[in-house]
Every structure is written in structure tokens, then in C-alpha cells.
Amino acid sequence: MKEKEVNLTSSQKIENKLNSFIGKHAKLIVAIFVAIVVVVIAVAVALTVIQSSTEEKFDALVALEDQYSSLALMSSDDEGYQADVDSFKASAEALIASSSLEKYPGAKTQLMLADLAFDSGDYQNAADLYRAVADAQSGTYLAELAVMNEAAAYDSMGDSAKALELYNYVFDTFGTDSAYAPKALFNAGRIYEATGETDLAKAAFEQLTGLYLVTDNGMASEYARLAQAHLISMN
Questions:
Q1: 201 and 132 in one domain?
Q2: Which tens digits make up the pLDDT trace of 33-71?
């Protein structure tokens, strides 16, 4: 009985001390509580704003893709074509500025600008735009695509050395599992063949057929078949 009374008294002492502490520091406790609530609200608002901004950028990207598709169906001689191009470029540059090339909407938009330059024959500008995406998107599939297109731009300019360097870079850096590896290896072989480096060309084509003529899914790469045809004609 006495032990129960002692326990009860101890509980009361603790309760009294707690009530005393709360009474003395009520303003501080309220201030801390209010500060926590403010932080929680601020974080929630920030997350909402970020999500909203991200959604807006992706919506803007979709709209630009629609514009680009429309431009692809037009001829440069069509009435209003240049005005549509200028409008597209202005919107694209605005999205890139707000998103940056490190983010998907900005990088994808820059690739469209690069493609537009490539299609118009402005290969150096296209190459520079592709390069910026490759640098900003290092380690992503967009980087692989950008480097391949950069190589194609230099190929179109007749700069075989630079194109070859980039095609080899794609194969050596992104590996045999890259979706662009067969095409990169074939183009490297094609350039070797065109520049008279027959042994290197054969080596590239043989490597291509060895890797991709028979694949795990049983489907041969179209570039492996082209390489096989080149090997036959070279023998």
C-alpha cells in the first residue's frame, strides 16, 4: 500500500514539474510550434510550386513537339514557314532558358533545335547544339543520341576525321548494349573504307557482324547485314 502511494506521489511530482515547465515556457513552446507549422507549410508550398513548374515545362515541351512535327511537314518555300520557324525557335529558347539543358525538357528542346538546323543544312550549328546536350546529359540516352547526331553533322560537312572520332566514341564509351552501337560501328567501318583504310574497315565490319548478326532475340541488326554485304564486296 505504501509503495503504491509512493509511486502515485512520484507521478504527481513529475506531472507538477511538467505543468510548471509548460507554464513558465508557454510562449516559447507556442513559438516553436508555430515555427514548425510554418516550415511544414513552406515545404508543402515549395513542393507544389516545383511540381507545377515541372508540369508546365513538360506541357510546353509537348506543344513544341507538335510545332516541330508541323514544321517537318512543310517546305521551306511554303508561305508562313519562316514565321513558324521563328516562332518555334523563340518558344524553344525560352523553354531551354527556364529549364536548362540538365533537365529533360530543356535537353529535348535543344535536340529539336539542332535537328531543325541539321535539316536546313546548317551542320556546324547543329553539331554545336548536339554537343551542348551531350555534355549536359552525360550518362543518359540523350547523350548517346546527341553524340550520334553530332557525328552525322560532321559527316555531312565532309569532316570524316571528326565524324570517325565521334562514331568510335559512341561504341567505345556507351558499349555494345547501346542502341546506337551497331550504327556507330557501321559508320566507322564505312568511313575507313571510304578513306582507303581497308584493313580497319574489314575489322570494324567483322566486329559488327560478330556482335549483331546473331543476337539474343534472334533478330539481326540491319547494320550487321549491311556490314556483311560490304565484307562480301571487299573480298
A1: no
A2: 555 655 555 444 444 444 445 788 888 899 999 999 988
Same domain, 46 and 117: yes
The count of structural domains within the chain is 2
Burial 98-116, CB ≥16 within 10 A → b, else e: ebebebbbbbbbbbbbbbb
What digits encode the pLDDT tens for the residues 127-164?
999 999 999 999 899 999 999 999 999 999 999 999 99
Residue 18 belongs to some domain of the structure: no
Q: Which three cell numbers stand for residue 33?
A: 510550434
Segments in 73-180 forming alpha helices (H): 81-99, 104-119, 123-136, 141-157, 160-174
CA angle 72, 223, 227 (to 5 degrees): 135
Pair 94, 185 in one domain = no
CA distance 24 to 2: 33
- pTM of the predicted model, to two decimals? 0.75
Q: Which residue segment(s) compose the domain that 174 sits in?
A: 159-235
Residues 103 and 171 placed together within one structural domain of the fold: no
